[in-house]
Every structure is written in structure tokens, then in C-alpha cells.
Design a protein that fits this description.
Helix content: 25-40%
Order of helices and strands: HEEEEEHEEHEE
Shape: globular
Strand content: 25-35%
Distance between the termini: 97 Å
Number of strands: 9
Number of helices: 3
Length: 183
């Protein structure tokens, strides 16, 4: 009987040592893996959204540097874009004047109240053509009876063909941000 107790105790020690040895070995392996990860590059994907919290794009970072950006078009197609600021025919003062005049026409036609508001807009140019406009943030408006987002988009779409793209970037998808003033 005593031999059986020693035998069971011996098995217990063997099993216990095996478990302990395996656990320590696993910790060492994890430490090695963590150390390996610290020396390699880390990729991070950061989404960005429109004013209604709908996903419209993703930034891809590698080693805390912006690697690339993809834009999600309304049809669900994800396109790689570059952030560039294209020139406008006549300059940005003429663009601001154009936007202001068009917006005043909308306000007058709709007997609307004068707004002192802003709209942060994302504008996508594909191969030099304006293909999409999204409202990124509304500042000072939002609950009016007039759908100002649609009016802003209509006005911006009227600028198609007036954007000057660097010849080296003509076949590139360009995304830029414009602060549209509603006044």
C-alpha cells in the first residue's frame, strides 16, 4: 500500500514538473516573440468618417508614418488616394466668390435665414475629374429645413473641369479638404 502511495506521488510530481516546465517555457517563448515584434514595423489602420459617422476612408500607417490612404466611394469601391491641394482656375479667391454667390442664390430662392456656418468637405478628383463630395463636419448648421449638405454638394459639383492638376498627377486619385463657408 505504501508502494502505491509513493508510486502515485511520483506520478504527481512528474506531471506537476511537466506542467510547470511547460508554463515557464511558454512564458520564455512569449517574451522572445514580444521582443521580436518590437524590432519589426507596426502597421495601424485608422478610419475616418463623414459628418453622419459613416466610414469614408482609412489611413494606413507604418512605423507611425502615413503610408497610404484609401477612400470609400458611395458605390462601395475603395480607391487609393493622395492628399494634394489642386489649383483652381482663377485662383482660390475666385472659387470663394463663386461659392458665396451660388450660396446666396440658394438662400434667396428659399427665403432662408442667413447662416454664418462652415462645412468641412472632402472632395475627390479621379483622373482630374470631380467624382465625389462628402461632408466631413458641420459647424453652425444641421437642423434646418433646407438640406444644406445637398446644396453644398451641388455647388461644388459645378466646379468640375475647373481644377488644375499637376501633369505628373493626372492619373492619380486626389482627395483634398475644403472649408466651405455658408454665407
Amino acid at each position: 500500500m505504501l508502494d502505491n502511495k509513493f508510486f502515485l506521488f511520483g506520478i504527481f510530481l512528474c506531471v506537476f514538473n511537466g506542467i510547470t516546465f511547460s508554463q515557464n517555457r511558454g512564458v520564455k517563448d512569449n517574451d522572445d516573440k514580444i521582443a521580436e515584434k518590437d524590432t519589426t514595423s507596426v502597421s495601424i489602420i485608422q478610419p475616418f468618417f463623414d459628418a453622419d459617422s459613416v466610414l469614408i476612408g482609412k489611413y494606413f500607417y507604418t512605423d507611425n508614418k502615413l503610408d497610404s490612404t484609401c477612400y470609400l466611394k458611395p458605390d462601395g469601391k475603395l480607391v487609393k488616394v493622395e492628399f494634394e491641394l489642386p489649383e483652381y482656375k482663377g485662383g482660390y479667391d475666385s472659387l470663394k466668390t463663386f461659392f458665396s454667390e451660388k450660396f446666396q442664390t440658394i438662400v434667396t430662392e428659399n427665403d432662408s435665414v442667413y447662416l454664418d456656418a462652415l462645412s468641412l468637405t472632402y472632395i475627390l478628383l479621379e483622373n482630374g475629374k470631380l467624382t465625389d463630395v462628402q461632408i466631413g463636419k458641420r459647424i453652425g448648421y444641421g437642423d434646418e429645413t433646407i438640406n444644406y449638405d445637398e446644396k453644398i454638394k451641388e455647388i461644388i459639383y459645378q466646379t468640375n473641369g475647373n481644377w488644375i492638376i499637376d501633369p505628373e498627377k493626372e492619373n492619380t486619385n486626389i482627395l483634398f479638404v475644403y472649408l466651405f463657408q455658408l454665407n
